[in-house]
Amino acid sequence: PRKMAVDNKWEQGDVVSVSAPGVAKPLNLPVLIQPGQAEGTVAIAVGYGRVMAGKVGNNVGDNAFPLAQVGRDSITYVNNVTLKATGAKSPIAQTQTHHTIMDRR
To answer: Which domain range does residue 60 map to?
Structure first.
């Protein structure tokens, strides 16, 4: 959410470390400020990272599946993550940005 980004002085593309209890390795993911995202929430596409995609695609992204908890009849997600700035930046390709209303407030 925009408020979370403002409060933490994060900008689009700033990389944050996402950690959670029971998840061995923190994920390093870029911030994508999403208008309309509920305050106090974070949305992460599960994804699996890319480790064997060739020279251009190797080690792109991160595997967020460890944040999913697979039960007998359903998949639930960790609901108590910690976010910390890493100081790194990662460009984000976006082709549909009209919903941002060009950052007007």
So the answer is: 2-88
pLDDT over 70 at 83, yes or no? yes
pTM of the entire structure? 0.80
Three state DSSP letters for the chain: CHHHHHHHCCCCCEEEEEECCCCCCCEEEECCCCCCCCCCCCCCCCCCCECCCCCCCCCECCCCHHHEEECCCCEEECCCCEEEEEEEECCCCCCCCHHHHHHCC
**How many domains is the chain built from?**
1
24-62: pLDDT as tens digits? 899 999 999 888 889 989 999 877 677 778 888 787 778
* Residue 32 tokens, joined: 């994508």
